[in-house]
Amino acid sequence: MGFTPLSEGAVEKLTNGQKPDNPILQCVAIKKLENDGKLRHRLLLSDGMNSFGTTMLATQLNPLVASDKLNPFSIIKMTKYQCTKVHGDKLVVICIALDIVHCGNEVGKRIGDPVPVGVGGQVTQASAPQKAAPKSVPKPMNNMQSPKPSAKAQAFGGNSGPTTPGGSATRVVAIEGLTPYQNRWTIRARVTNKGQMKEWSNSRGTGKLFSFTVCDQSGSIRVTAFNEEATRFYDMVETDKVMLVSNASLKPANQQYNNTNHDYEMTLRRDSVVSLCEESESKLVPEVPYQFVPIKDLPEKVGKFADVVGVVKEVEELSTVMIKSQQRETSVRKFYMVDQSNAQIKVTLWGKQAEDFDGSDNPVVAFRSAKVSDYGGCTLSTTSVTTMSINLDTPEVHALKQWFSAGGGTQNVESISSDAGTGANRSANWKTLAQVKEENLGMGEKPDYVTSKVTILYVKKENTLYQACPSEQCNKKVIDLSNGQYRCEKCNTTTENFKYRMILNIHLADDYDSQWVTCFPDKGELLLGMTSQELGELKDSDEVAYEMALRKIYFKSYFMKFRCKSERFNDEQRLRVSVVDLSPISFTDYNKKLMADLQQLVQE
Question: Do residues 4 and 58 lie in contact, with contact meaning Cβ atoms separated by under 8 Å?
Fold first, then answer.
């Protein structure tokens, strides 16, 4: 029976520092290694001509050995692996993924007569032909000197690196070659991102942490420090500085929080060493270039991280939101930026970054690893791995400034964020009320957001108010116990008072159609110019004044942004339209929008 041919010469290439694609090798033997309760396997691999015994099986592949799918004499194809050197020039191959071409029981024997080789393809001492060596006179002891390292070992070991107090050179390794199977390594890398200090809390206690990402010529890796180490290293780590890092733990990367391509991530510990590189050594690590994605192409990156650059066109006021999972408030600011692709996107900043942001004078903002999401169309937001820079001295930034000042800022750009504001000067998703119905907006899985110029015709005076729980964090409707007390089922409390909450049902129209919409308290209070509590007390004391408060907004026009989503009610599918934003009409801005629409129609 014929078997799949082995990749002859693959072992020699591996030992010479090359990485052949998907080599097909025979697993001649498997040795179990146990360290600190962790089981690992070392493989002796052969290509039929040569063999080497320093291949480590990644722990996620242990079940292949346990189930006897991978056994001696198996023929495998290594589809993903890493090569690294330890203890100077000892080659270690980490097999991360493999395909079993033929199982060992099927092959049943060793193929060929492979010769064991070491680094550089040299035949190992055990397999070298033995010659009768002539008797030699012992050399004087003072001639016993350490051999000079080879050129290859010097390149890998990084003899240009810093020295220890004793004078010996620190062995600098490439980030790409880092694995948990190495000891006593140091990386020299540039900090491309530094996250904020965060606090954590779970069943085991509380603490703090921060993360940063470092990069060298070979790749990047995420580093995290907890508690005492976080306090010790936070001020030392600076973005764009070159650092030396050693004595850290490596574990499989958590891809949910890790945007690097490395299989592992680093955790600093008590004996970790982090230091700033000297300027002469910093030049050995090149700066990491941005990989900017045009704004119009960002919908293709939803759910991923991207480098983006754009001119700030409009900035919203700073606001606060409640993070329910953490029961705390945080600052949030949104702004809109554009680029030469004639597209606009909404960006959300959080926390201190939102508080410190100054969008005046249309600065050019560059993001490294911004999160692209499909919330409200296509939007950008910052995370712990995102770096934001303003007015960088780069060709892309200068080109953007020139484009914007030459008229790019006044062009009618396409907004890829469906909820990009309500003002006529914004590139909102403009629709007439007739188009909302004709295009069946809101009938898909996700809601649609549109902006219209509308006039209020009528407000229902029935069911505009309800009695809600008086707690600041709860808006649940209370039950009137008819004894002067009110019960909130959500809070499981009974109180002697309540608060009013308004929900307005408004009939409005534009030049083409009409529509009933729902307006919740924040926007309803803005429309009426009074709080829900004031409206409720007015209804209880003076019914005529209550009706007049509703009538005063009749036949007034506004720019409104709507959320359109179909809902099932009594086994019937209905379109529910609610107001999510509104603003008074600026006829100057609206005329500019109409002129831009006319110009676009003429061009078509």
Answer: no
Length in residues, the chain:
604
Nearest C-alpha neighbor of 233 from the set 213, 209, 257, 254: 209
| SS3 label, residue 258 | coil
Strands (E), 87-203: 90-102, 115-116, 186-194, 198-202
Q: Which amino acid is at 372?
A: V
**CA–CA separation, 196 vs 553, rounded Å?**
46
Could you give the angle at the alpha carbon of 281 between the alpha carbons of 278 and 286, nearest 5°?
Answer: 120
Whether the CB-CB separation of 174 and 262 falls below 8 Å is answered with no
In the prediction, which pLDDT does 178 show?
84
Residue 286 has pLDDT above 70, yes or no: yes
**What φ, ψ does residue 431 adopt, rounded to 5°?**
-145, 150
Query: What are the DSSP calls for 521-543, one per residue?
Result: HHHHHHHHTS-HHHHHHHHHH-H
The average pLDDT across 396-419 equals: 82
Both tokens assigned to 280: 């002469």
> Who contacts 338 (Cβ-Cβ below 8 Å, separation ≥6)?
295, 310, 311, 313, 344, 404, 408, 409, 413
Closest CA to 224 of 198, 203, 244: 198
Amino acid at 460: K
Q: How far apart are the first and last CA of the chain?
A: 70
Query: Looking at this protein, which amino acid is placed at residue 478?
Result: V
**What residues contact residue 480 under an 8 Å CB cut-off, 6+ apart?**
467, 486
What angle in degrees, to the nearest 10, is found between the helix axes of 521-528 and 532-541? 60
Kindly tell me the sign of the dihedral angle through the C-alpha atoms of 574, 580, 584, 590: negative
What pLDDT, in 10s, does the model give residues 516-529? 999 998 889 889 98
Closest Cα to residue 526, out of 600, 593, 450, 580?
Answer: 580
Question: For the residues of 327-359, what is the DSSP string, one character each?
Answer: TEEEEEEEEEEE-TTSEEEEEEEEHHHHHH---
CA 454 to CA 366: how far, in whole Å? Answer: 37
Whether the Cβ atoms of residue 218 and residue 177 lie closer than 8 Å to each other: yes
Handedness of CA 268, 273, 275, 277 (dihedral sign): negative
134 is written with which tokens?
């002539």
Greater model confidence, 79 or 602: 79
Strands 50-57 and 115-116, bridge-based pairing: parallel
Q: Go through 410-429 and write b for each residue having 16 or more CB atoms within 10 A of its CB, e for each that does not.
A: eeebebbbbbbbbbbebbbb
Nearest to 83 by CA among 25, 20, 7: 20
Rounded to the nearest angstrom, the gap between the alpha carbon of residue 108 and the centroid of all alpha carbons in its chain is 48
Rounded CA gap, 10 and 420, in Å?
A: 56
Helix (H) / strand (E) containing 596: helix 587-603
The more confident residue out of 505 and 526 is 505
Cβ-contact 314, 421 below 8 angstroms: yes
CA distance 503 to 515: 16
240 vs 141 pLDDT, higher one: 240
State the Cα–Cα distance between residues 292 and 367, nearest whole angstrom: 9
